[in-house]
Amino acid sequence: MSTVKKLTESVELLKKRRNAIILAHVYQQGEVQEIADYVGDSLDLSRKAVTTRADVIVFCGVQFMAETAVILNPSKTVILPDKNAGCGLADFATGEQIIKFKKEHPGITVVSYVNSSAEVKAESDICCTSANAIHVVNSLTCDSVLFVPDKNLGSHVAEHSNKKILLWDGYCYVHENITVNTLESLQDQYPNAEIIVHPECPDEVRHMADFTGSTSQMSRYVKQSHQKEFIVGTEDNFIYRLKSDNPDKLFYPVHTFCEGMNTITLEKIKIALETMEHKVSVPENIRQKAEIALDKMLTVI
Ligand code: 13P
Ligand code: SF4
After folding, report:
1. 178-253: which CATH number, 3.40.50.10800, 3.30.565.10, 3.40.50.720, 3.40.50.1820?
2. 180 CA to centre of ligand 1 in angstroms
3. Are 66 and 265 in contact (CB under 8 A)?
4. 2 CA → ligand 2 middle, Å
Protein backbone atom coordinates (compact mmCIF):
# COMPACT_ATOMS: atom_id res chain seq x y z
CA MET A 1 0.00 0.00 0.00
CA SER A 2 1.35 3.49 -0.85
CA THR A 3 2.35 5.87 1.95
CA VAL A 4 -0.40 8.34 1.01
CA LYS A 5 -3.01 5.54 1.10
CA LYS A 6 -1.76 4.32 4.50
CA LEU A 7 -1.79 7.84 5.94
CA THR A 8 -5.25 8.49 4.52
CA GLU A 9 -6.62 5.33 6.16
CA SER A 10 -5.08 6.22 9.53
CA VAL A 11 -6.46 9.76 9.35
CA GLU A 12 -9.95 8.46 8.51
CA LEU A 13 -9.90 6.12 11.53
CA LEU A 14 -8.59 8.80 13.90
CA LYS A 15 -11.15 11.30 12.61
CA LYS A 16 -14.00 8.96 13.55
CA ARG A 17 -12.50 8.24 16.97
CA ARG A 18 -12.12 11.96 17.74
CA ASN A 19 -15.38 13.03 16.06
CA ALA A 20 -13.25 15.45 14.07
CA ILE A 21 -13.75 17.40 10.89
CA ILE A 22 -10.91 18.49 8.61
CA LEU A 23 -11.25 21.97 7.12
CA ALA A 24 -8.76 23.01 4.44
CA HIS A 25 -8.07 26.29 2.70
CA VAL A 26 -7.77 26.24 -1.10
CA TYR A 27 -4.03 27.06 -0.78
CA GLN A 28 -3.35 23.70 0.88
CA GLN A 29 -1.38 21.06 -0.99
CA GLY A 30 -3.45 18.73 -3.19
CA GLU A 31 -3.17 15.70 -0.86
CA VAL A 32 -4.45 17.80 2.05
CA GLN A 33 -7.36 19.13 -0.02
CA GLU A 34 -8.20 15.51 -0.93
CA ILE A 35 -8.43 14.32 2.66
CA ALA A 36 -10.41 17.34 3.88
CA ASP A 37 -14.14 17.16 4.63
CA TYR A 38 -14.50 20.67 3.40
CA VAL A 39 -12.28 22.90 1.21
CA GLY A 40 -12.98 26.60 0.87
CA ASP A 41 -11.89 30.21 1.20
CA SER A 42 -11.51 32.05 4.52
CA LEU A 43 -15.16 33.05 4.59
CA ASP A 44 -16.50 29.55 3.80
CA LEU A 45 -14.24 28.05 6.46
CA SER A 46 -15.37 30.56 9.11
CA ARG A 47 -18.99 29.70 8.39
CA LYS A 48 -18.25 25.97 8.49
CA ALA A 49 -16.52 26.39 11.87
CA VAL A 50 -19.74 27.91 13.24
CA THR A 51 -22.10 25.22 12.01
CA THR A 52 -20.09 22.00 12.39
CA ARG A 53 -21.35 19.31 14.78
CA ALA A 54 -17.89 17.78 15.17
CA ASP A 55 -16.10 18.11 18.53
CA VAL A 56 -12.70 18.71 16.98
CA ILE A 57 -11.77 20.94 14.04
CA VAL A 58 -8.45 20.11 12.38
CA PHE A 59 -7.67 23.37 10.64
CA CYS A 60 -5.48 22.98 7.58
CA GLY A 61 -4.71 26.62 7.00
CA VAL A 62 -2.74 29.27 8.86
CA GLN A 63 -2.88 30.52 12.46
CA PHE A 64 -5.36 33.38 11.96
CA MET A 65 -7.86 31.00 10.30
CA ALA A 66 -7.69 28.54 13.22
CA GLU A 67 -8.02 31.46 15.66
CA THR A 68 -11.11 32.66 13.80
CA ALA A 69 -12.66 29.20 14.28
CA VAL A 70 -11.91 29.40 18.04
CA ILE A 71 -13.36 32.91 18.28
CA LEU A 72 -16.57 31.95 16.51
CA ASN A 73 -17.02 28.54 18.10
CA PRO A 74 -15.22 28.41 21.47
CA SER A 75 -16.91 25.14 22.48
CA LYS A 76 -14.82 23.24 19.90
CA THR A 77 -11.27 22.01 20.12
CA VAL A 78 -9.38 23.57 17.22
CA ILE A 79 -6.12 21.95 16.17
CA LEU A 80 -3.51 23.43 13.83
CA PRO A 81 -1.35 20.54 12.52
CA ASP A 82 1.77 22.76 12.51
CA LYS A 83 2.11 25.50 15.10
CA ASN A 84 4.43 27.41 12.75
CA ALA A 85 1.77 27.78 10.05
CA GLY A 86 1.74 31.56 10.12
CA CYS A 87 0.59 34.35 7.82
CA GLY A 88 3.20 36.98 6.95
CA LEU A 89 0.47 39.53 6.27
CA ALA A 90 -1.17 39.09 9.70
CA ASP A 91 2.22 39.83 11.31
CA PHE A 92 2.18 43.40 9.96
CA ALA A 93 -0.16 44.71 12.68
CA THR A 94 -0.45 44.26 16.43
CA GLY A 95 -3.34 45.04 18.76
CA GLU A 96 -1.20 47.67 20.50
CA GLN A 97 -0.53 49.48 17.23
CA ILE A 98 -4.26 49.66 16.52
CA ILE A 99 -4.95 51.03 20.01
CA LYS A 100 -2.31 53.72 19.41
CA PHE A 101 -3.74 54.55 15.97
CA LYS A 102 -7.25 54.91 17.43
CA LYS A 103 -5.92 57.30 20.08
CA GLU A 104 -4.31 59.40 17.35
CA HIS A 105 -7.47 59.30 15.18
CA PRO A 106 -10.40 59.53 17.62
CA GLY A 107 -13.65 58.11 16.23
CA ILE A 108 -12.00 56.31 13.28
CA THR A 109 -13.78 53.15 12.15
CA VAL A 110 -11.39 50.20 11.96
CA VAL A 111 -12.01 47.48 9.38
CA SER A 112 -9.70 44.52 9.77
CA TYR A 113 -9.09 41.93 7.11
CA VAL A 114 -9.47 38.48 8.73
CA ASN A 115 -5.81 37.91 7.88
CA SER A 116 -4.92 39.49 11.21
CA SER A 117 -4.37 38.38 14.80
CA ALA A 118 -7.18 37.95 17.35
CA GLU A 119 -5.82 41.06 19.15
CA VAL A 120 -6.21 43.19 16.02
CA LYS A 121 -9.73 41.86 15.44
CA ALA A 122 -10.55 42.69 19.06
CA GLU A 123 -9.62 46.34 18.44
CA SER A 124 -11.65 46.52 15.18
CA ASP A 125 -15.19 47.67 14.54
CA ILE A 126 -15.79 45.04 11.89
CA CYS A 127 -13.87 42.32 10.04
CA CYS A 128 -13.94 41.39 6.37
CA THR A 129 -12.52 38.76 4.04
CA SER A 130 -11.35 39.36 0.49
CA ALA A 131 -14.71 38.01 -0.72
CA ASN A 132 -16.76 40.65 1.12
CA ALA A 133 -14.34 43.56 1.81
CA ILE A 134 -15.96 45.98 -0.67
CA HIS A 135 -19.43 45.11 0.56
CA VAL A 136 -18.46 45.42 4.23
CA VAL A 137 -16.82 48.84 3.78
CA ASN A 138 -19.70 50.18 1.68
CA SER A 139 -22.20 49.00 4.31
CA LEU A 140 -20.70 51.38 6.90
CA THR A 141 -22.27 54.77 7.58
CA CYS A 142 -18.98 56.60 8.35
CA ASP A 143 -17.04 58.62 5.75
CA SER A 144 -13.55 57.29 6.41
CA VAL A 145 -12.07 54.02 7.65
CA LEU A 146 -8.73 52.52 8.57
CA PHE A 147 -8.24 49.34 6.54
CA VAL A 148 -5.74 46.98 8.17
CA PRO A 149 -3.35 45.23 7.52
CA ASP A 150 -3.29 44.77 3.69
CA LYS A 151 -2.57 47.94 1.69
CA ASN A 152 -3.29 46.19 -1.63
CA LEU A 153 -6.72 44.85 -0.68
CA GLY A 154 -7.39 48.23 0.98
CA SER A 155 -6.49 49.99 -2.25
CA HIS A 156 -8.74 47.60 -4.22
CA VAL A 157 -11.61 48.45 -1.84
CA ALA A 158 -10.89 52.19 -2.22
CA GLU A 159 -11.24 51.81 -6.00
CA HIS A 160 -14.78 50.47 -5.43
CA SER A 161 -15.95 52.82 -2.69
CA ASN A 162 -16.50 56.52 -2.19
CA LYS A 163 -15.19 56.39 1.37
CA LYS A 164 -11.82 57.72 2.39
CA ILE A 165 -9.69 54.65 3.12
CA LEU A 166 -6.61 55.00 5.31
CA LEU A 167 -4.20 52.21 4.36
CA TRP A 168 -1.96 50.24 6.72
CA ASP A 169 1.51 49.55 5.34
CA GLY A 170 1.18 45.76 5.24
CA TYR A 171 1.22 43.28 2.38
CA CYS A 172 1.31 39.57 1.62
CA TYR A 173 4.73 38.54 0.25
CA VAL A 174 3.10 35.75 -1.79
CA HIS A 175 1.10 38.29 -3.82
CA GLU A 176 3.53 41.21 -3.62
CA ASN A 177 5.99 38.93 -5.50
CA ILE A 178 3.71 38.80 -8.52
CA THR A 179 4.89 41.37 -11.06
CA VAL A 180 3.67 42.89 -14.31
CA ASN A 181 6.80 41.41 -15.99
CA THR A 182 5.90 37.88 -14.88
CA LEU A 183 2.36 38.24 -16.16
CA GLU A 184 3.51 39.78 -19.46
CA SER A 185 5.93 36.96 -20.17
CA LEU A 186 3.22 34.38 -19.37
CA GLN A 187 0.89 36.28 -21.67
CA ASP A 188 3.51 36.03 -24.47
CA GLN A 189 3.70 32.27 -23.90
CA TYR A 190 -0.09 31.79 -23.64
CA PRO A 191 -1.74 34.50 -25.75
CA ASN A 192 -5.21 32.95 -25.40
CA ALA A 193 -5.16 32.94 -21.60
CA GLU A 194 -7.05 35.38 -19.42
CA ILE A 195 -5.35 36.78 -16.32
CA ILE A 196 -7.11 36.31 -12.98
CA VAL A 197 -5.58 37.67 -9.76
CA HIS A 198 -6.26 37.96 -6.03
CA PRO A 199 -6.92 41.47 -4.64
CA GLU A 200 -3.83 41.13 -2.41
CA CYS A 201 -1.79 41.76 -5.59
CA PRO A 202 -0.22 45.21 -6.11
CA ASP A 203 -2.25 47.90 -7.93
CA GLU A 204 -0.42 47.63 -11.28
CA VAL A 205 -0.90 43.84 -11.33
CA ARG A 206 -4.61 44.08 -10.53
CA HIS A 207 -5.03 46.76 -13.17
CA MET A 208 -3.66 44.57 -15.97
CA ALA A 209 -5.78 41.55 -14.96
CA ASP A 210 -9.00 40.53 -16.70
CA PHE A 211 -10.51 39.64 -13.34
CA THR A 212 -9.66 40.41 -9.72
CA GLY A 213 -11.35 38.48 -6.93
CA SER A 214 -11.01 36.37 -3.81
CA THR A 215 -10.33 32.66 -4.30
CA SER A 216 -14.06 31.84 -4.22
CA GLN A 217 -14.78 34.63 -6.70
CA MET A 218 -12.01 33.41 -9.02
CA SER A 219 -13.42 29.86 -8.80
CA ARG A 220 -16.86 31.11 -9.77
CA TYR A 221 -15.46 33.28 -12.58
CA VAL A 222 -13.52 30.37 -14.11
CA LYS A 223 -16.48 27.99 -13.85
CA GLN A 224 -18.83 30.43 -15.59
CA SER A 225 -16.34 31.63 -18.22
CA HIS A 226 -16.29 30.38 -21.82
CA GLN A 227 -12.50 30.90 -21.80
CA LYS A 228 -10.39 27.75 -21.66
CA GLU A 229 -7.04 29.09 -20.40
CA PHE A 230 -6.11 31.17 -17.36
CA ILE A 231 -2.95 32.69 -15.89
CA VAL A 232 -3.54 32.45 -12.14
CA GLY A 233 -2.16 35.31 -10.02
CA THR A 234 -2.25 33.74 -6.58
CA GLU A 235 -0.73 30.91 -4.51
CA ASP A 236 0.16 27.99 -6.79
CA ASN A 237 -1.80 25.32 -4.86
CA PHE A 238 -5.02 27.08 -5.82
CA ILE A 239 -4.51 25.60 -9.28
CA TYR A 240 -5.08 22.13 -7.81
CA ARG A 241 -8.61 23.28 -6.83
CA LEU A 242 -9.25 24.95 -10.18
CA LYS A 243 -8.10 21.87 -12.14
CA SER A 244 -10.21 19.50 -10.02
CA ASP A 245 -13.30 21.66 -10.54
CA ASN A 246 -12.63 22.43 -14.24
CA PRO A 247 -10.84 19.43 -15.79
CA ASP A 248 -11.45 20.74 -19.33
CA LYS A 249 -9.58 24.04 -18.72
CA LEU A 250 -5.89 24.94 -18.55
CA PHE A 251 -4.22 26.93 -15.77
CA TYR A 252 -0.78 28.55 -15.73
CA PRO A 253 0.89 29.30 -12.37
CA VAL A 254 2.94 32.39 -11.52
CA HIS A 255 5.05 30.30 -9.11
CA THR A 256 4.42 31.93 -5.78
CA PHE A 257 4.13 29.93 -2.55
CA CYS A 258 2.81 30.59 0.93
CA GLU A 259 5.23 29.06 3.43
CA GLY A 260 2.63 28.83 6.21
CA MET A 261 0.10 27.02 4.04
CA ASN A 262 2.66 24.57 2.66
CA THR A 263 3.94 23.49 6.07
CA ILE A 264 0.85 21.28 6.58
CA THR A 265 1.16 17.68 5.38
CA LEU A 266 -0.82 14.43 5.65
CA GLU A 267 1.72 13.12 8.15
CA LYS A 268 1.23 16.19 10.37
CA ILE A 269 -2.57 15.84 10.19
CA LYS A 270 -2.26 12.23 11.40
CA ILE A 271 0.05 13.24 14.27
CA ALA A 272 -2.30 16.13 15.16
CA LEU A 273 -5.22 13.72 15.49
CA GLU A 274 -3.15 11.28 17.54
CA THR A 275 -1.71 13.84 19.95
CA MET A 276 -4.41 16.55 19.76
CA GLU A 277 -1.62 19.08 19.23
CA HIS A 278 -1.39 22.02 18.58
CA LYS A 279 -4.51 23.30 20.28
CA VAL A 280 -5.28 26.89 19.33
CA SER A 281 -6.54 29.18 22.06
CA VAL A 282 -7.48 32.84 22.38
CA PRO A 283 -7.72 34.61 25.79
CA GLU A 284 -11.42 35.00 26.64
CA ASN A 285 -11.38 38.81 26.98
CA ILE A 286 -9.85 39.13 23.49
CA ARG A 287 -12.06 36.40 22.04
CA GLN A 288 -15.25 38.13 23.13
CA LYS A 289 -14.23 41.46 21.57
CA ALA A 290 -12.99 39.82 18.35
CA GLU A 291 -16.24 37.85 18.11
CA ILE A 292 -18.23 41.09 17.97
CA ALA A 293 -16.23 42.30 14.94
CA LEU A 294 -16.53 38.92 13.19
CA ASP A 295 -20.25 38.58 13.96
CA LYS A 296 -20.86 42.02 12.50
CA MET A 297 -19.20 40.88 9.29
CA LEU A 298 -21.30 37.72 9.18
CA THR A 299 -24.52 39.72 9.56
CA VAL A 300 -23.58 42.21 6.81
CA ILE A 301 -23.20 39.48 4.19
P1 13P B 1 -9.31 34.00 0.38
O2 13P B 1 -10.21 34.40 1.49
O3 13P B 1 -9.60 34.68 -0.90
O4 13P B 1 -9.28 32.51 0.24
O5 13P B 1 -7.83 34.50 0.73
C6 13P B 1 -7.16 34.14 1.88
C7 13P B 1 -5.74 34.43 1.79
O8 13P B 1 -5.01 34.20 2.71
C9 13P B 1 -5.22 35.03 0.58
O10 13P B 1 -3.85 35.16 0.66
FE1 SF4 C 1 -1.11 35.10 4.56
FE2 SF4 C 1 -0.33 35.62 2.09
FE3 SF4 C 1 -0.23 33.14 3.01
FE4 SF4 C 1 -2.61 34.31 2.48
S5 SF4 C 1 -1.01 33.77 1.03
S6 SF4 C 1 -2.07 33.10 4.28
S7 SF4 C 1 -2.15 36.40 3.11
S8 SF4 C 1 0.97 34.89 3.76
Report:
1. 3.40.50.10800
2. 21
3. no
4. 31
